[in-house]
Task: inverse folding
């Protein structure tokens, strides 16, 4: 079992535990805000399951049906997370509206807050693990799950502070207002998550610093060629797809041109283990005198 898969399973276990704690807190207090916080944890559980499915798919090797691999499965998971977040926000707004229509005093507020804070601490610790490991393992699904939990931590802290104000001021209407703020917060995080995930599905170019590193590697290992132009790179989970045109002298043999390509590919893969590289070799009259000039 890979580390990514273990982390995805761990997310489901953590989500179940946190959901149970938050539902308990909402039940003993009767708080709409804590119920809204629990609804967000239901989304956490659903997205953790989606992330697990996506991670297992993304780990599959390329085959005849998917010759470029299953890497983008993780982006679908991240998009699904964004959709779930939006649905949760709508449910929270509904609960808040009910709270505005019929505000009720809270029961055992400080006990509920204490239970909620235990759940929040668990979420905080696991979100740090997911974001760090997601970046290290280049897993968009795990990193997206971690960022989502991080927004959950902030909203839970806000709910706790707000509930203290409800008790101090004796204004139960504030409970419903807090629920609205929770909904707006996760709606904002969901929109950001959707935007970044759709970018991955649409083959957005790799980050400028990564492109610069790729160009530098090509320049340092293309001795014997004339130039490399139209260098492009896109990311899909762990994989980075790189393609470019390599111009060589017209008199160069196929064997020599192939040796240059092998040297460049080896250097690129030394920096990006999951690199999938396509090099189009061209004769010197195809030179554009732009891009990476070797000679």
Result:
């Amino acid at each position: 079992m890979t580390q990514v898969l273990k982390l995805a399973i761990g997310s489901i276990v953590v989500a179940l535990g946190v959901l149970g704690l938050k539902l308990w807190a909402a039940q003993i207090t009767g708080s709409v805000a804590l119920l809204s916080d629990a609804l967000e944890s239901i989304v956490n559980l659903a997205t953790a399951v989606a992330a697990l499915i996506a991670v297992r798919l993304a780990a599959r090797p390329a085959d005849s049906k998917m010759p470029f691999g299953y890497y983008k499965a993780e982006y679908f998971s991240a998009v699904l997370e964004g959709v779930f977040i939006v649905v949760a926000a709508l449910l929270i707004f509904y609960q808040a509206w009910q709270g505005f229509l019929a505000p009720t005093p809270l029961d055992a507020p400080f006990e509920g807050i204490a239970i909620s804070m235990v759940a929040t601490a668990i979420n905080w610790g696991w979100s740090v693990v997911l974001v760090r490991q997601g970046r290290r393992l280049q897993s968009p699904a795990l990193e997206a799950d971690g960022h989502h939990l991080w927004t959950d931590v902030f909203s839970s802290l806000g709910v706790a502070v707000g509930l203290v104000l409800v008790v101090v001021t004796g204004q139960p209407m504030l409970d419903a207002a807090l629920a609205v703020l929770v909904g707006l917060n996760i709606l904002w995080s969901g929109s950001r998550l959707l935007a970044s995930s759709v970018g991955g599905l649409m083959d957005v170019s790799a980050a400028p610093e990564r492109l610069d590193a790729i160009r530098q590697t090509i320049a340092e290992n293309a001795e014997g060629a004339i130039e490399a132009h139209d260098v492009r790179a896109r990311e899909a989970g762990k994989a980075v797809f790189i393609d470019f045109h390599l111009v060589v002298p017209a008199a160069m043999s196929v064997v020599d041109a192939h040796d240059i390509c092998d040297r460049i590919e080896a250097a690129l893969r030394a920096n990006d283990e999951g690199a999938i590289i396509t090099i189009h070799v061209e004769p010197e009259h195809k030179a554009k005198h732009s891009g990476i000039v070797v000679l």
Remarks:
- The two ends are 48 Å apart (CA to CA).
- Residues 230 and 244 are 5 Å apart (CA to CA).
- The domain at 208-293 is CATH 3.30.70.1350 (Alpha-Beta Plaits).
- The mean pLDDT is 84.
